[in-house]
């Protein structure tokens, strides 16, 4: 209740306060060696003239600009020279004075901008292309498995532990992104705890997470209606899911009892996603090993996931080069580590599919009609001979399936 009251007071005060010094453009990108103009202006100004107010600006070695600016007709333009590559350098009004007064007559909370100095516009464009490409690859990666299940009318070969953990992980991730993007209280608390920081979640993050959860849900429905043999969720996986859900429930209770903030609760959901990512691949890898086969496990899913993960890391490298800042790799080791885990298991799955078990035989008539571009000659001859037998309409020999 106390936190909610504080946020309400801050919201009301920001709306009705006067003489707010603001910068409209919160994000500016400048090529190294070039200049950009930033405009400071007074919003909701009072009738008292403030044209003799001096504004003192922060300094950074990456940028060159005046230390003090003078307001003229409620505004002041500042020319910023980009000296060295940097990501998100803050240029802000630190203080102000009017005719030597000791008290600043302006509200300076919104008087800042984040400046990124890049080495190349072409590299910046490439970063955007790579970003949208890995977003598309990850988004589409769910469909090869769904299509394979539909074509076979069977989910035999798809490990239910992997699928269950995936549903829990993306469910938590979707709630995390939805709250971080749309909940005003969460965003206000984040702004208080992380001043001058850009929004941590964008619209494409929300779309991806919700889409991934729905794709997992569709796959689970396929497991209900299609043939699944004797497959089921293991007791170990059930125990892990109960532990993860219990952690989330306890976080909800702690939030309701005001033991933690709603932002802390939202952050706890990201921990669930991280735990799932670290665990979910093991069941499917061991399942393929125990069956000596990857039939039923779509390699298209793996190839797209590998593409998305690789391009994600490539984008981090390109961004680091363009702004001469490699802190993303060691300041946020969780993101890099989870991406590395995914790529590591994708390589294992590709080795299983193309090297260890490339010609796995599945004696099951349900798989008839699945694309098999390179059938085994013995099986092909047997099928051709069997096609001329009027007493039997199908071959009893196993059919080889290449996903």
What are the defining features of this structure?
15% strand, 5-stranded mixed β-sheet, single chain, alpha+beta, 403 residues, 54% helix, disordered C terminus, Immunoglobulin-like
Report on this model:
With 403 residues, this protein is an alpha+beta fold. Helices cover 54% and strands 15% of the residues. The protein folds into three domains: 17-118, Immunoglobulin-like, CATH 2.60.40; 120-157 and 293-378 and 398-403, no CATH class; 158-274, no CATH class. The strands form three sheets. Strands 2-9-8-4-6 form a five-stranded mixed beta sheet, with no helix packed on it. Strands 1-3-7-5 form a four-stranded antiparallel beta sheet, with no helix packed on it. α7 runs antiparallel to α8. It is elongated, with a radius of gyration of 29 Å.
Counted beta strands: 11
Sheet having the most strands: 5 strands, mixed
Strand order in space, largest sheet? 2-9-8-4-6
How many domains, as an integer? 3
What string, H for helix and E for strand, traces the elements in order?
A: HEEEEEEEEEHHHHHHHHHHHEHE
Mean of the pLDDT scores? 84
Ranges where pLDDT stays below 50 over 5 or more residues in a row are: 1-16, 363-375, 386-403
* Proportion of residues in extended strands: 5-15%
Query: N-to-C terminal Cα separation, in Å?
Result: 55 Å
Radius of gyration: 29 Å
Estimate percent helicity. Answer: 40-55%
Number of helices: 13
Shape descriptor reads: elongated
Name the structural class. Answer: alpha+beta
């Amino acid at each position: 209740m106390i936190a909610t009251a504080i946020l309400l007071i801050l919201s009301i005060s920001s709306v009705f306060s006067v003489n707010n010094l603001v910068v409209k453009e919160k994000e500016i990108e400048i090529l190294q060696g070039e200049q950009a103009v930033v405009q400071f202006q007074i919003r909701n100004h009072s009738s008292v003239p403030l044209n003799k107010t001096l504004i003192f600006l922060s300094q950074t070695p990456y940028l060159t600009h005046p230390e003090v600016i003078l307001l003229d007709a409620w505004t002041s333009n500042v020319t910023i020279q980009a000296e060295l590559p940097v990501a998100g350098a803050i240029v802000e009004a630190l203080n102000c004075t009017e005719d030597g007064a000791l008290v600043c007559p302006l509200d300076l909370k919104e008087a800042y901008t984040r400046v990124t100095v890049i080495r190349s516009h072409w590299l910046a464009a490439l970063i955007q292309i790579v970003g949208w490409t890995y977003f598309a690859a990850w988004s589409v990666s769910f469909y090869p498995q769904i299509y394979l299940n539909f074509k076979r009318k069977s989910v035999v070969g798809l490990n239910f532990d992997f699928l269950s953990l995936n549903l829990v992980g993306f469910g938590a991730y979707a709630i995390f992104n939805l709250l971080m993007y749309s909940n005003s209280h969460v965003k206000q608390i984040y702004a208080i705890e992380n001043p001058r920081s850009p929004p941590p979640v964008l619209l494409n993050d929300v779309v991806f997470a919700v889409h991934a959860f729905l794709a997992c849900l569709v796959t689970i429905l396929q497991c209900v209606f299609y043939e699944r043999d004797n497959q089921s969720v293991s007791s170990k996986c059930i125990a892990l899911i109960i532990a993860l859900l219990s952690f989330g429930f306890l976080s909800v209770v702690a939030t309701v009892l005001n033991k933690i903030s709603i932002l802390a609760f939202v952050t706890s959901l990201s921990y669930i996603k991280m735990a799932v990512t670290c665990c979910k691949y093991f069941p499917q890898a061991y399942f393929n090993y125990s069956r000596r086969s990857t039939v039923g496990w779509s390699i298209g899913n793996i190839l797209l996931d590998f593409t998305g993960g690789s391009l994600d890391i490539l984008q981090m490298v390109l961004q680091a080069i363009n702004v001469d800042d490699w802190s993303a790799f060691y300041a946020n080791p969780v993101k890099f580590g989870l991406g590395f885990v995914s790529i590591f298991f994708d390589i294992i799955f590709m080795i299983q599919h193309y090297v260890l078990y490339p010609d796995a035989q599945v004696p099951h008539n349900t798989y008839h009609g699945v694309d098999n571009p390179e059938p085994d000659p013995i099986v092909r001859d047997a099928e051709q001979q069997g096609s001329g037998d009027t007493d039997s309409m199908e071959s009893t020999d196993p059919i080889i399936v290449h996903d």
